[in-house]
């Protein structure tokens, strides 16, 4: 038994229950650690597709291929001509992989704003103006909003949550838990678009095109839902923090080591002035974009005058706009505070943000090869149509199917922590399958985001989980995986139930999920 059980037992659970939790989570951790790197998963999947294509090509099927209108036939990829073409087109397959450019461009802009310190001071300011009575919802809300800066919330908001709770005479772990719930549990919520939107959209669109080659999906297809989800996550996190987690933490003794915690809530007059100027510039940019889009003859509109059609220049510019709207205030703030002394520092910051994406680039290379082979083989279409037959035979309501996707995602998240890797693996299977029974890719993606975010806070496979444990140990020396997991489990359960119900309510009321999004896919 590890030391986590000792801390967990103080929170009101029995030692036996804590031991069971520790063993359960340790088993998940060991299982996840035995899995290969996500890049190698796609290598193995590619090999499996080649073998299965040869096997299933020997059979005839009664299904009609929706892409060709002809009888479905699995193509044998273990063929000299195909393998020669696979290798010859390998570089082009990689460079034309839609998620690659979209994600890297977004991350470069966000990286500038983060490394300059602009995002950090924005989060600090939000914390400082919050009344003590509203600390819990404010910390959860700020955590959810910080998702626009990807990883910044993990290293800034979570320790700040603990600090301000302790300063207010409350248990610091309650503040840490509230912040962690907002940052990671609410990762798919947010008031503004983030790099996650085009990242998931590109994978979803690629999966949908396995079934319908002409299918196009807007990067902001879930934006209205995620915007509203920010407030739902805040309310749920507030309830769990004050009614469940904090009362159970009262008997957990806090280590008195003030010097071990860095002051992360203060900023200088120069930083404040730089933030004001750069934020005003950002506001001016937003107003200028609004003014540009307003006229009926705006160049940002589609031929039919629509701003939200996928073909409109505005919608096709979402990723460049994310890049520019993070880059500009980040550069101004960096120059005014001295973080960026010249253009080399700016370029260096972009390069630094790319270093953190090296593993993603490697994964994208193998993922692109897998998706090409998977699509060429027609195995995805066969799986979608046969799976659709099974779903139709079961005659389950669409709502039950969506709940199943949420739960499946949460289970997979216990072993594969990367949001993009998970969706790249299960998306090509379930998106076409759900399309075949009339459920849209946009709705499938929304369900995936709920399952992924709700379980992020309890999976040891999440890359920042060790960091969270370190933050926890600043206040409770013998804390471990079991301590954090038992503290976060109520958030995970409430988020999963409440957020899924919220999605079903959106669907029942016919509220738009996002720009250009639908709930159903027309079945021919």
From TrEMBL:
Keyword Transmembrane attributed: yes
Stretches that traverse the bilayer: 41-64, 97-119, 139-165, 172-192, 221-240, 274-294, 314-336, 357-375, 395-416, 423-441, 453-472, 493-515
Coiled-coil parts of chain: none
GO BP terms in the entry: p-aminobenzoyl-glutamate transmembrane transport
Name of this chain's protein: Aminobenzoyl-glutamate transport protein
A Pfam short name: ABG_transport
An example molecular function term from Gene Ontology annotations: secondary active p-aminobenzoyl-glutamate transmembrane transporter activity
Gene label: abgT1
Domain of life: Bacteria
Keywords in alphabetical order: Membrane, Transmembrane, Transmembrane helix
């Amino acid at each position: 038994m590890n030391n986590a059980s000792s801390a967990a037992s103080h929170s009101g659970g029995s030692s036996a229950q804590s031991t069971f939790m520790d063993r359960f989570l340790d088993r998940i951790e060991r299982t996840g650690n035995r899995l290969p790197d996500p890049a190698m998963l796609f290598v193995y999947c590619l090999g499996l597709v080649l073998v299965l294509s040869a096997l299933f090509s020997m059979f005839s099927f009664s299904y009609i291929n929706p892409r060709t209108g002809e009888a479905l036939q699995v193509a044998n990829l273990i063929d000299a001509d195909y393998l020669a073409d696979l290798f010859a087109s390998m570089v082009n397959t990689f460079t034309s992989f839609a998620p690659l450019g979209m994600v890297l461009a977004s991350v470069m802009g966000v990286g500038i704003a983060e490394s300059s310190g602009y995002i950090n001071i924005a989060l600090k300011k939000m914390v400082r103006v919050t009344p003590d009575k509203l600390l819990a919802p404010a910390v959860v809300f700020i955590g959810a909003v910080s998702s626009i800066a990807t990883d910044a919330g993990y290293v800034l908001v979570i320790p700040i949550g603990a600090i301000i709770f302790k300063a207010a005479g409350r248990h610091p772990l309650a503040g840490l838990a509230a912040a962690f719930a907002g940052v990671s549990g609410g990762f798919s919520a947010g008031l503004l678009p983030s790099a996650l939107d085009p990242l998931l959209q590109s994978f979803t669109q690629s999966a949908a095109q396995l079934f319908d080659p002409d299918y196009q999906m807007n990067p902001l297809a879930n934006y209205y839902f995620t915007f509203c989800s920010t407030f739902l996550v805040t309310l749920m996190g507030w309830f769990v923090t004050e009614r469940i987690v904090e009362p159970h933490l009262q008997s957990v003794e806090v280590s008195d080591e003030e010097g071990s915690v860095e002051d992360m809530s203060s900023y200088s007059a120069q930083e404040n002035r730089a933030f004001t100027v750069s934020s005003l510039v950002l506001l001016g940019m937003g107003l200028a974009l609004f003014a540009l889009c307003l006229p009926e003859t705006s160049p940002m509109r589609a031929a039919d005058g629509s701003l939200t059609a996928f073909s409109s220049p505005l919608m096709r510019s979402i990723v460049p706009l994310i890049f520019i709207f993070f880059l500009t205030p980040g550069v101004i703030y960096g120059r005014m505070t001295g973080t960026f002394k010249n253009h080399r520092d700016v370029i260096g910051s972009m390069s630094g943000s790319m270093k953190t994406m090296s593993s993603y680039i490697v994964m994208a290379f193998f993922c692109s090869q897998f998706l090409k082979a998977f699509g060429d083989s027609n195995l995805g279409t066969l799986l979608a149509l046969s799976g659709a037959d099974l779903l139709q035979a079961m005659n389950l309501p669409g709502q039950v199917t969506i709940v199943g996707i949420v739960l499946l995602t949460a289970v997979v998240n216990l072993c594969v922590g990367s949001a993009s890797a998970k969706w790249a693996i299960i998306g090509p299977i379930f998106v076409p399958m759900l399309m075949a029974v009339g459920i849209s890719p946009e709705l499938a993606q929304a369900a995936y985001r709920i399952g992924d975010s709700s379980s992020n806070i309890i999976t040891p496979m999440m890359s920042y989980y060790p960091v969270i444990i370190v933050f926890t140990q600043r206040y409770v020396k013998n804390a471990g995986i079991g301590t954090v997991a038992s503290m976060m489990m109520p958030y995970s359960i409430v988020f999963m139930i409440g957020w899924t119900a919220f999605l079903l309510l959106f669907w029942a009321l016919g509220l738009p999920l996002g720009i250009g999004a639908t709930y159903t896919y027309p079945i021919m």
